[in-house]
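Exercise 7. Given the encoded structure of a 812-residue chain, write a plausible sequence.
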């Protein structure tokens, strides 16, 4: 069942009912000012850091669901309603929400009045613009009142939700004309404030929450709105809000437009005040003046759309499969940009006060956006590498505002160092910019111990190479990609963190998965060494990779007979083996070892993937492990803490489904690669939105596995490495347009009935116009013709002197 539809021409998902199975949200903002906005106008806004500089308040896990947002109320006689249905939940005659790329639109119609809202964050300003247009569609004159409402957060969202003994006494505001200023803590150490204004004279305002809502009311029945009259309250100590009242009379057919701006202002310390305790409003007034007419709003909206046009033109596909076109050209790349902006910080499942930027998460996210914003990817790589320790280990997380590694989780995750190679290699393959390798980059943000980025990569590889266990497999430390496989933790008391309890590294517990990564990124590192002319080092690295490959294929170490073992626990026992009672097979080593090419020649690759299909596949995707753990295993940690079928305990972890799909392309099985791709692909799961529940235009982190009561139900949408990996899968492996160090390679692996297709790809400043004749073949390039001339192999020689290159590929 669907609750809306895709409008590909406008790059929008059109939600047709406010009663979606879960709030379906969108993100506004692409630089420093961000908002989350749901299909019923819920959500919140922050500047740079969702924890430290939160502008508006949101209450997670509240009831009824998704209650706080930025709302407009319309009072028409005795009826009060909202264009986005919530929070009054007054039934609407018509409702529509269009989530677009960096903006959302709402349409609500009630009793002959129509309200259209367009909300977006302009490209270059720290504000959110909301244009509300009210139209009288009835045949009689209408006098209505419009009310706006936002609830301020007292900046630090963590403190805001806990420190009430202080917070109930600190709220401060100012009002000037239609502009309401939130200035809590400005008198002391803050030099920033927020403003909420409208480009028209107002009848009244409120800034004290109790006056607006009424003490025992809530946003669904605000007393002042029900009374039809705001009270001009001035917040003092208690919770500050901003609400405007506009009284409007509309003739039949008449429309009126209002532009609301929610902005963030920082003043230089010496220029904070206009007069004693009166804030300097000049920069706010200048900001508001930039959006005080419809024409200015139209221009800013056009600029936003232009920006996205440019980004989304870098990789486009035209195939006979609409769903693939839609995901590749619009939504998958959009989600990659959102994960770039947010990492894992702020979604409807990540509260914005918990996690910083993950080391491994950010490196993997980069794989999905490096082609869109290579300069910012470069900066990100340097930021990430700057948090690395001198011995090659890494902080697991760092703070976006300070860019420093944090001790919340600390270090010791065996896979982290190798992801830095993955990200850097992707950047160089995309841009050809090897100067990044010579950048001096600090360790642990200490400039006095800076070394080149190349040296950082060397230490990354070296760390894993020299930290091996009894089977010569890499030591796992606190965990590898699977944060919940905590083999050195041995926690028995509630409240102990699985990620920080116990030693950060043990001498026995090993990861086969990291072995697969070692082969994949060891090879990429060796290629980088070659590029730098370091042939001896490249040879040594390749020797280590070859040795690791043997270990992985050895039935006394990485191989279990029909699939790859997952790990060895701290007692030396196998994890993910037919010898185990529960958790006999895990997805990660099958996907990653095969995508690294391990077992391709020996037939073990095919065996491992066949086992995945036989043992882990479901109609909703490939589960992470089977059989699920039904009891808690102290020697395994968090993985066995979830009820069967959820999260890492046999859920369908969408992040590693593309690894299996990519692995299938490596052995040339296009039908199966695409089958795996489709199962978790939003454009396909849209049809079962009542089961899937999360947004049908983007990926979620996890879908409940076969053991779960609600098999097929999605959780944790938006901020997941799934976005990057599925884009890598579909764009580089299935459609096969893969950036190498030497140039673009075209080597598709598609289902037999996929048909001919074309890809436009801007790469290192050259536009490639690629057409593929498929000939019913799943994999194999018979002919590669570049600007009319036949070329050997699959790599298009890079020629910077050309602006456009025509490429014809004949499969066979
Ligand atoms: C984390 C990832 C991790 C994954 C699997 C996610 O929540 O952000 O870093 O790889 O879970 O455990």
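Solution.
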């Amino acid at each position: 069942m669907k609750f809306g539809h895709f409008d590909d021409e406008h790059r929008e998902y059109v939600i047709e009912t406010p009663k979606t199975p879960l709030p379906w949200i969108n993100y506004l903002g692409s630089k420093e000012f961000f908002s989350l906005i749901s299909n019923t106008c819920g959500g919140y806004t922050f500047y740079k850091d969702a924890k430290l500089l939160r502008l508006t308040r949101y209450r997670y896990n509240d009831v009824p669901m998704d209650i706080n947002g930025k709302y407009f109320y319309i009072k028409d006689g005795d009826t009060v309603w909202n264009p986005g249905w919530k929070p009054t939940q007054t039934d609407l005659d018509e409702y529509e929400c269009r989530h677009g790329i960096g903006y959302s639109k709402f349409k609500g119609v009630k009793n002959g009045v129509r309200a259209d809202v367009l909300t977006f964050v302009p490209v270059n300003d720290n504000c959110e613009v909301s244009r509300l247009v009210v139209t009288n569609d009835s045949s009689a004159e209408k006098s209505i009142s419009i009310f706006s409402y936002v609830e301020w957060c007292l900046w630090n969202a963590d403190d805001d939700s806990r420190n009430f003994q202080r917070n109930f006494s600190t709220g401060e505001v100012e009002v000037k004309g239609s502009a309401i200023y939130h200035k809590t803590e400005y008198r002391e150490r803050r030099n920033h404030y927020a403003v909420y204004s409208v480009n028209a004279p107002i009848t009244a305002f409120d800034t004290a929450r109790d006056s607006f809502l009424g003490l025992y009311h809530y946003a669904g029945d605000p007393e002042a709105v029900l009374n039809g009259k705001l009270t001009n309250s001035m917040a003092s100590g208690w919770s500050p809000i901003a609400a405007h009242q506009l009284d409007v009379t509309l003739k039949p057919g008449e429309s009126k437009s209002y532009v609301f701006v929610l902005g963030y202002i920082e003043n230089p310390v010496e220029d904070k005040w206009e007069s004693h305790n009166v804030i300097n409003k000049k920069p706010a007034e200048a900001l508001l003046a930039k959006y005080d007419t419809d024409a200015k709003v139209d221009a800013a909206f056009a600029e936003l759309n232009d920006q996205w046009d440019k980004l989304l033109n870098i990789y486009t596909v035209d195939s006979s499969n609409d769903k693939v076109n839609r995901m590749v050209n619009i939504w998958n790349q959009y989600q990659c940009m959102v994960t770039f902006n947010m990492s894992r910080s702020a979604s409807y499942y990540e509260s914005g006060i918990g996690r910083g930027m993950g080391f491994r998460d950010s490196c993997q996210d980069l794989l999905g956006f490096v082609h869109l914003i290579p300069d910012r990817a470069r900066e990100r790589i340097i930021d990430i590498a700057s948090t690395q320790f001198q011995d090659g280990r890494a902080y697991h997380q760092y703070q976006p505002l300070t860019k420093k590694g944090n001790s919340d989780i600390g270090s010791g995750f065996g896979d982290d160092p190798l992801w830095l190679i993955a990200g850097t290699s992707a950047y160089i393959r995309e841009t050809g910019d090897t100067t990044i390798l010579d950048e001096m980059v600090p360790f642990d943000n200490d400039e006095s111990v800076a070394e080149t980025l190349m040296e950082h990569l060397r230490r990354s590889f070296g760390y894993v190479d020299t930290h091996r266990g009894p089977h010569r497999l890499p030591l796992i430390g606190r965990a590898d990609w699977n944060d919940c496989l905590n083999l050195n933790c041995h926690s028995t008391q509630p409240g102990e963190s699985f990620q920080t309890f116990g030693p950060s590294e043990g001498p026995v517990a090993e990861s086969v998965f990291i072995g697969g990564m070692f082969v994949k990124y060891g090879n990429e590192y060796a290629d980088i060494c070659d590029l730098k002319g370091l042939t001896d080092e490249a040879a040594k690295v390749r020797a280590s990779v070859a040795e690791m490959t043997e270990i992985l294929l050895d039935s006394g170490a990485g191989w279990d007979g029909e699939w790859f073992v997952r790990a060895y626990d701290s007692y030396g026992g196998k994890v993910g083996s037919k010898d185990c009672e529960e958790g006999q097979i895990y997805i990660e080593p099958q996907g990653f070892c095969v995508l690294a090419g391990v077992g391709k020649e020996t037939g073990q690759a095919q065996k491992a993937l066949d086992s995945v299909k036989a043992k882990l596949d479901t109609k909703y995707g490939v589960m992470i492990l089977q059989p699920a753990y039904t009891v808690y295993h102290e020697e395994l940690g968090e993985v066995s803490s979830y009820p069967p079928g959820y999260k890492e305990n046999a859920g369908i972890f969408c992040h590693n489904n593309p690894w299996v799909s990519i692995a299938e392309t490596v052995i040339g099985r296009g039908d199966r690669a695409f089958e795996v791709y489709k199962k978790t692909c939003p454009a396909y799961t849209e049809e079962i939105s009542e089961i899937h529940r999360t947004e049908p235009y983007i990926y979620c982190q996890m879908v409940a596995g076969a053991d779960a009561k609600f098999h097929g139900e999605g959780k944790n949408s938006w901020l997941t490495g799934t976005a990057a990996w599925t884009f890598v899968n579909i764009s580089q492996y299935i459609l096969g347009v893969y950036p190498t160090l030497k140039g673009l390679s075209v080597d598709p692996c598609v289902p037999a009935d996929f048909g001919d297709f074309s890809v436009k790809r801007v790469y290192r400043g050259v536009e490639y116009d690629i057409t593929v004749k498929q000939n019913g073949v799943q994999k194999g390039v018979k002919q590669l013709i570049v600007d009319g001339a036949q070329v050997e192999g699959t790599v298009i020689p890079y020629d910077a002197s050309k602006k456009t290159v025509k490429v014809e590929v004949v499969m066979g």
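Remark. Residues 344, 358, 360-361, 481-484, 648 surround beta-D-glucopyranose (CB under 6 Å). Students should compare their own answers with the one above.
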